[in-house]
Each structure stands twice: as structure tokens, then as C-alpha cells.
Amino acid sequence: MMKDVENTQDICITSYDAYAVICSKLVKLCPRLIPTPLWGLSLARVARMAPQAALAVCDSCSEIVERIHHYWMTLDRSGKCEVCGEPGNEIDEDWLYCIFDENGNLVSDIAVRNPTPQEAGRYKGVAYLQRLRLLCEKCHLAKHQGYALVHGRKQEALEHLARINQLSLEETRKLVDKAFLIHHQLSKIHNWTIKIGELGGLDEELRRRVEELLNTMYKKGFFIYGTWLYYRYPEYCEEVEPRIIHETIAILAEAS
User: Fold this and answer.
1) Cα(178)–Cα(184) distance, rounded to whole angstroms?
2) 230 by DSSP, 3-state: which?
3) What confidence tens digit (pLDDT) does each residue in 217-239 have?
4) Best exposed site among 81, 106, 174, 226 by fewest CB in 10 Å?
5) If you write DSSP's letter for every residue of 55-99 in order, what string do you get?
């Protein structure tokens, strides 16, 4: 097993993904919820941020933002949804989340392990953007179950996810509930490396630079919201995240 997490892009594959246990059943469309420490860090967020805001990260970062903005806005949105075949209109970032222990061994059962904060502190996570794909609005909503939940569209998203994967609504609900449990465990981990895979139309030099930008922002506690850059204060992980996660689980329990 490769032990250098800085070089895990090649082994952060679908079968190693923390959500593999549910995605093996939600084969056509699977919701991988973004770990809380990585909220606000994505290619789409970089594309929409104000270039001048990126100067807080590095002197050349505004140029990276401008180039990613051009790349993102010129992606083809005129084809069919890659999941259901309906007209597509939204670009989806398909991320994988792979977890390794202090010895570099894959942690494939994080939901079962339920690590303590101390144990999770020894884990290392790799968030790997493996591809971009065109989705329709319904499939995009079903993919982002957390967004659907907080915007009052949970039932709509569940029903579409069940229909796409040809599963019963009850089985789909149980799988989505498990996705939230996995998300809860992933959110305990605060040592992440962000990797950007080879994406169509994104040249290697820009891929490397935006990957470096996202990692620098993560390490400095920055995240993007709208067009601006915000700072996540150090105590956020101890004070705010647990409350958010607790409230989310409570909402899920009431809705089930």
C-alpha cells in the first residue's frame, strides 16, 4: 500500500472512496456529501470569486481565478444529462474522498469505526476531483442531498434519486441517511489534501496552480462564499461544526 498521502492521486479511486459502500448501490447517481472542513472550496467557487479577493492568498492568485473563471464559464452546457439523458444545464464536480490512517493504510469503514476526535486527528484525507460532468437540474439536486435538505426539497431529491437508481424510496432513504453518517465522520478529519484530476480543457499548468491555490486556502482557513473570500477561525471546528452536524442529524431523524 502506498503510504505517501501527498502522492495518493493515483490511488484515490472509486473503490477507495469513503462513500463506496452506498455508491455500490446508488450506481447511476450517488450523493457524496462534502466534508465540513472543505465547504467553500471547489472549482466552481474559484470560478465565481472576485479576482481581487484572491490577492489575500497570493500575489498571482487573481490571475488563476480569472483563468478558471474563463474555463468554467466556457464549459459546454448544451448537451444531455450524463445520468438520465434529459437536457443538461449544470456542471457537476464529481469528488472522491479517501481516508488514510497514520501508517498510510486505507480507512474504508469510517462510518463503522466512528473515530473519536483524537483518532480522527491522526487520519489524513484526500479530496480528489476525478471529473466534471453535465447534469440536469433534477439530477444535480438529487446529487446534493445536503443542499436539498436545507432548502426544503429533501423529498423531491429523494424521489428522483430512487427513480434514477431504480430503488424503493425506503431503501434510498436509508442509503442517504448513511451518507449523512459518513459525512459526519469525514467532518471530524481536519488534515486534508485537495487533488485535481485531469479535466477536459484544463491544461496541466493551470490544473497544478488551481490545486495549489485550493490547498493554500484550506491550510490558511479561507473559504469562498459568493464572490468573496472568508476566514474560518480556528475554534470553528470545535465550536460551530459540531453544532451544525448535530442539528443536521436531528433534522434527518425527525424527517425519517
Assistant:
1) 10
2) strand
3) 999 999 999 999 999 876 555 55
4) 226
5) GGT-TTHHHHHHHHHHHHHTS--SSB-TTT-SBP-EEEEEEEEEE
pLDDT < 70: residue spans in the chain: 1-10, 234-256
Instruction: For residue 140, report the phi and psi dihedrals to the nearest 5 degrees.
Output: -65, -40
Nearest to 215 by CA among 94, 66, 70, 57: 57
CB 17 within 8 A of CB 96: yes
Counting runs of H as helices and runs of E as strands, what totals does the chain give?
12, 5
Residue 12 burial (CB count, 10 A): 24
How many angstroms separate the CA atoms of 80 and 41, rounded?
A: 27
pLDDT, residue 233, reads 72
User: How far apart, in whole angstroms, are the C-alpha atoms of residue 82 and residue 67?
Assistant: 26
User: pTM of this prediction?
Assistant: 0.87
User: What region, left, alpha or beta, does residue 39 occupy, with left being phi > 0 and alpha being psi -120 to 50 degrees?
Assistant: beta
Task: Report the length, in residues, of the chain.
Answer: 256
Cell 434529459 belongs to 86
Query: What is the percentage of the chain residues whose pLDDT exceeds 90?
Result: 80
Give CA–CA dist 80/223, Å, rounded. 32
The three three-digit cell numbers of residue 8, written as one number: 495518493
Where would I find the H helices in 84-221?
110-113, 117-120, 137-143, 145-150, 154-165, 169-186, 204-220
Residue 112: predicted pLDDT: 87
